[in-house]
Amino acid sequence: MICSNSFPIDWVHARETRFLLSGKAGAIELLVNGVQRPRALSLICHPHPLHGGSLDNKVVFTLARACRDSEMVAVRFNFRGVGDSAGIYGNGIGELDDAKWLLGRIHSELPDLPIILAGFSFGAAIAAQLAQEIPCAGLLLSAPPVPHYGMDHVVAVTAPIILLQCDDDDVTESAITYRWFEQLSAPKKTLHTWPTGGHFFHGMLPELKYVAEKFLSDLLV
């Protein structure tokens, strides 16, 4: 792929477009699922770069599908040092910088669309922190790594939020995550849990997509 400062032709409406965009730390790899009549713009952040996380992660893929099927332009991207994105892991700081810059760049192309932020695991922490700085219409967090990667500093959000979590999460502690969510200040909070599925929602992805779509449909009435 050739890195460019501009977006491909018809990237907003094409079913799937993978390309490189010139970012602050070099090339950023994007995969966009477009729709014909977009109602919103969604940015979905992937799991930890040093533990195999990428835009092709199955949970990230599922969240992107839920956004696309809810008539949103669904944008996934690889953090610095992952896939064809340039640079090296930035200890969460660089990754937040990537997400902030990219969202600003994309929103400048689609300024009239409301923003939906989503993320899985480490990516949920990035999305939650991004929501502290950039106004959004909704926030979807899947298995956020509370209290790590800045999650302990997220005490309030200004948009409706949904937490998607399995009770038997084998990477994060669900009980800690639930206590954090109870104390979180937000205009509307939705908690959806599954007794099994682990950190990666094994066997739960169709349900994950359904619940995410229901949350999104309520936002865009």
Report on this model:
- It is a single chain.
- A nine-stranded mixed β-sheet has the order 1-2-3-5-4-6-7-8-9, sandwiched between helices.
- By secondary structure, the chain is α/β, with parallel strands linked by helices.
- 30% of the residues lie in helices and 24% in strands.
- It has a single domain (3-219), classed as Alpha/Beta hydrolase fold, catalytic domain (Rossmann fold, 3-Layer(aba) Sandwich), CATH 3.40.50.1820.
- It has helices spanning 58-69, 93-109, 122-133, 174-183, 205-219; strands at 3-4, 17-23, 26-33, 40-45, 72-77, 115-120, 138-142, 161-166, 189-194.
- The mean pLDDT is 95.
Question: In brief, what are we looking at here?
Answer:
The chain is α/β, with parallel strands linked by helices.
How are the SSEs placed, and which strands pair?
Blueprint: E1 3-4, E2 17-23, E3 26-33, E4 40-45, H1 58-69, E5 72-77, H2 93-109, E6 115-120, H3 122-133, E7 138-142, E8 161-166, H4 174-183, E9 189-194, H5 205-219
Helix pairs in contact: 1-5, 2-3
Characteristic key phrases:
single chain; 221 residues; alpha/beta; Rossmann fold; 9-stranded mixed β-sheet; 5 helices; globular
